[in-house]
Each structure stands twice: as C-alpha cells, then as structure tokens.
Amino acid sequence: MAQERTGAATFKGNPITLIGPELKVGDQAPDFTLSKNLIEEVSLKDYAGKIKLISVVPSLDTGVCDAQTRRFNVEAGELGDNVVVLTVSVDLPFAQERWCGAAGVDRVVTLSDYKTRSFGENYGVLIKEFQLDMRSIFVVDAEDKITYVEYLPEMTESPNFEQAIAAVKALL
C-alpha cells in the first residue's frame, strides 16, 4: 500500500490526501511510465542526459494549469537543447494535444499519467480524492538527481516560476 499524506495540501482550503512519498532535493528521481500518445509510452530514461523541468498540473483545461503551461512553454524556448520541459497531467493524450494546438504550445512535452498513475504515486502527487496529480514542480539534473522541488500547498495556486527557472539555469 502506498504512503498517504493526509492534509499535505488543500483544494480551495479543504484538505486533500496525497499518495506517495514526499521527495526532497538530493533524492534520485523515481522512474515513471507516462503516455506520450495513446500508443507510445515514455519513462525517465527516455530523457537521459538532459536537465528535466517537470511541471505537474491537475488538468490543462483549468485557468491556473493553462497559465503555468504557457509560461513554461515561453521559458523552454530560452533554456537550450540540454533542457527538456515536461508537463504531466492525467488529461488524456488527445486532450493534451488538442489543448496544445489551441494554445500554440509547442516547446513543452505533454505527458499523460492517465493509465497507471505511476508518476503521481512515485512523485507523491496523486490526489486520492480526485485521482488527479497535484500541482508541483521538479527539476532533475542530467544524472537524474532532484535539484529542486515545489509541492504547492494549495491546488489553485501558481508555482514559483522564477525559482524553478533559476534552479534549471544553475545546472547549465
């Protein structure tokens, strides 16, 4: 049974339960299996040797998630080829593709946790009550060590974009 962290975060002020461990700076990034589309799956090793900024959102079809993903799309264009920006949600892959097309988002890689929720459980962001992944940011270096973590205390708040980007730039 996976670890549960009751009251680790809130949704509109109401406590929610996160499933999985609370990762910390210095931890080895856990592996995951995410859907790139309905057929192709990827894991951490598919991004070996790259600096990874992992932006986790509950659903691209909400205002804060939309703004977060658009912001990291802009930032991704300025970070260079050694950095990959991954946006993870439980949205279906074709919904992610539709949203990216409508939003003009083309520099982040959207990945879906809808099949197994393995990312959510391994990174401690799976919301038990909603079966969505909690808003969070992880920066993982080229050797797959976590160098920055931000678990948002409130699901509807935005992450600290400046600190996340500074954490990536510190690795360049």
From TrEMBL:
<keyword id="KW-0049">Antioxidant</keyword>
<keyword id="KW-1015">Disulfide bond</keyword>
<dbReference type="InterPro" id="IPR050455">
    <property type="entry name" value="Tpx_Peroxidase_subfamily"/>
</dbReference>
<dbReference type="InterPro" id="IPR002065">
    <property type="entry name" value="TPX"/>
</dbReference>
<feature type="active site" description="Cysteine sulfenic acid (-SOH) intermediate">
    <location>
        <position position="65"/>
    </location>
</feature>
<dbReference type="InterPro" id="IPR036249">
    <property type="entry name" value="Thioredoxin-like_sf"/>
</dbReference>
<comment type="subunit">
    <text>Homodimer.</text>
</comment>
<dbReference type="Pfam" id="PF08534">
    <property type="entry name" value="Redoxin"/>
</dbReference>
<dbReference type="InterPro" id="IPR013740">
    <property type="entry name" value="Redoxin"/>
</dbReference>
<keyword id="KW-0560">Oxidoreductase</keyword>
<keyword id="KW-0676">Redox-active center</keyword>
<keyword id="KW-0575">Peroxidase</keyword>
<comment type="function">
    <text>Thiol-specific peroxidase that catalyzes the reduction of hydrogen peroxide and organic hydroperoxides to water and alcohols, respectively. Plays a role in cell protection against oxidative stress by detoxifying peroxides.</text>
</comment>
<comment type="similarity">
    <text>Belongs to the peroxiredoxin family. Tpx subfamily.</text>
</comment>
<dbReference type="InterPro" id="IPR013766">
    <property type="entry name" value="Thioredoxin_domain"/>
</dbReference>
<dbReference type="InterPro" id="IPR018219">
    <property type="entry name" value="Tpx_CS"/>
</dbReference>
<dbReference type="GO" id="GO:0004601">
    <property type="term" value="F:peroxidase activity"/>
</dbReference>
<protein>
    <recommendedName>
        <fullName>Thiol peroxidase</fullName>
        <ecNumber>1.11.1.24</ecNumber>
    </recommendedName>
</protein>
<feature type="domain" description="Thioredoxin">
    <location>
        <begin position="23"/>
        <end position="172"/>
    </location>
</feature>
